[in-house]
Specification:
Elements (H helix, E strand, L loop, with lengths): L3 E4 L2 H8 L4 E3 L15 E5 L5 E7 L5 E7 L7 H18 L7 E6 L8 E6 L2 E6 L8 H12 L3 E5 L5 H7 L6 E6 L6 E5 L2 E5 L14 H7 L7 E5 L5 H8 L4 E6 L2 H13 L8 E4 L2 H10 L4 E6 L4 E3 L4 E3 H13 L2 E11 L6 H15 L2 E8 L18 E8 L1
Parallel strand pairs: 1-3, 8-9, 13-14, 13-16, 14-15, 16-19
Antiparallel strand pairs: 2-5, 3-4, 4-5, 6-7, 7-8, 9-10, 11-12, 17-18, 19-21, 20-21
Helix pairs in contact: 2-3, 8-9, 9-10
């Protein structure tokens, strides 16, 4: 089996041998002959020794991704084996009781780097984080049809600058049907026995972040009879979980009125009355300042900001804004109350994230004690050799004065 060769430097060789699947652009990749996205290449060291089979994406910072340490082609039988292994992992290890929306293929964690497949009821959603997969998308679609018999398969495109676009463009269609019949818009799916509405065509995201499933279930026994403030509520999935668990009052805050209307529809889909709760449109930091002026106090505060959030008046980033948000939230949290914070920022590890929480607590003159620290669920596996794969941080802390 012959593929065009691409020479990689000693540092990249070492990273691949340690199990990392990315070839980052460097002085060696600058000398590579021209190629196109989707080319399958033999990655070799300076002496021509074969190291791995890679999938080329020449216009990206990640120039190639390792498909295998052996010589191979991403043909129908190889893709079928990889997808079957991913299905088996979920069947064996993921608790999907009462759940019809979950991740079926998690990129590097399932040996298909740069590619994800999510299940939404009878439909599948493919996302390409590597344009190298595009020429192989038809074969992949056929494999998924054969193995899973979905009603339809969609691709959700991943434009650049997604967070900036999200602020102004939550109705544009980024999803396209690859095979099968169109899905209802919205489509009703289940998570932990609760109903949620998702959109497979409109918007950059579907309306439900599947990696928080276990964390929403963890929330439920903590909030019965409690006053809950849900910041960066998006479509209010955490709020729905809290309401279903018997929270006395839930205040959901988000910069997008459209998402909050979607959140109210999610309440209705579970026969929960949104009018018994509060929905506030606005910048979360400004809203917290106003709530503090009003003397409001909460028993549980949830904070799950996007990595980058752009609103008309402020710009929030995880590294730059978490401590300020934590300090503001602590002024609204009663002693003994729970602060639940989350970040999906890939480049910030757990230790750095806890430092942000510490800064916020010191700023507020409060003490925070972490009682639970978790990440993504079993359907979001990652290789132990790929630290970027463990991106989700979810901390439950008690405020003690």
């Amino acid at each position: 089996m012959q593929h065009e060769k691409r020479t990689i430097g000693p540092e990249t060789v070492r990273m691949i041998e340690l199990g990392h699947p990315w070839i980052i652009a460097d002085s060696y990749t600058k000398k590579w002959p021209a190629g196109k996205a989707g080319d399958v290449v033999a990655l070799v060291d300076g002496s021509g020794r074969f190291i791995a089979t890679g999938l080329l994406d020449p216009d990206d910072r990640i120039m190639a991704r390792v498909l295998s340490r052996e010589r191979m082609r991403p043909d129908r039988s190889w893709l079928s084996r990889r997808v079957q292994q991913a299905i088996q992992l979920r069947q064996s290890h993921a608790d999907l009781a009462g759940t019809s929306a979950y991740r079926l293929v998690n990129g590097e964690g399932d040996g298909l780097p740069g590619l994800t497949v999510d299940r939404y009821g009878e439909y599948l959603m493919v996302q390409l984080y590597c344009e190298g997969w595009r020429p192989h998308l038809k074969i992949l679609t056929r494999v998924m049809e054969e193995l899973l018999h979905p009603a339809g398969i969609y691709e959700k495109s991943r434009p650049q600058k997604t967070r900036e676009l999200e602020a102004v463009s939550d109705t544009k269609s980024y999803g396209r049907l690859l095979a099968g019949a169109p899905a209802p818009q919205p489509l009703l799916v289940q998570e932990n026995g609760l109903n949620f509405l998702v959109r497979l065509e409109e918007g950059l995201n579907t309306g439900l972040f599947l990696d928080q499933r276990k964390n929403r279930r963890d929330l439920m026994p903590r909030v019965r009879g409690k006053r809950v403030l849900n910041l960066f509520a998006y479509t209010a999935a955490f709020s729905v979980a809290a309401a279903a668990a018997g929270a006395s009052l839930i205040t959901s805050v988000d910069a997008s009125p459209g998402y909050l209307e979607w959140g109210k529809a999610n309440f209705g889909a579970n026969r929960l009355n949104p009018k018994r709760h509060e929905f506030i449109t606005g910048d979360c930091l400004h809203v917290m300042q106003e709530l503090a002026r009003q003397g409001k106090v909460y028993d549980v505060i949830i904070m799950d900001p996007p990595s980058f959030s752009t609103t008309a008046k402020s710009r929030f980033t995880t590294r730059g804004g978490t401590s300020d948000l934590v300090a503001a939230a602590l002024s609204l949290l009663q002693s003994g109350g729970l602060l639940i914070t989350s970040s999906n920022h890939q480049r910030i590890d757990v230790a750095d994230y806890l430092k942000e929480l510490r800064r916020g607590a010191l700023q507020a003159g409060s003490e925070l004690r972490v009682i639970s620290l978790s990440g993504q669920p079993e359907d979001f596996p990652y290789p132990v050799t790929f630290p970027e794969g463990r991106y989700l941080k979810y901390a439950v802390s008690v405020k003690t004065d």
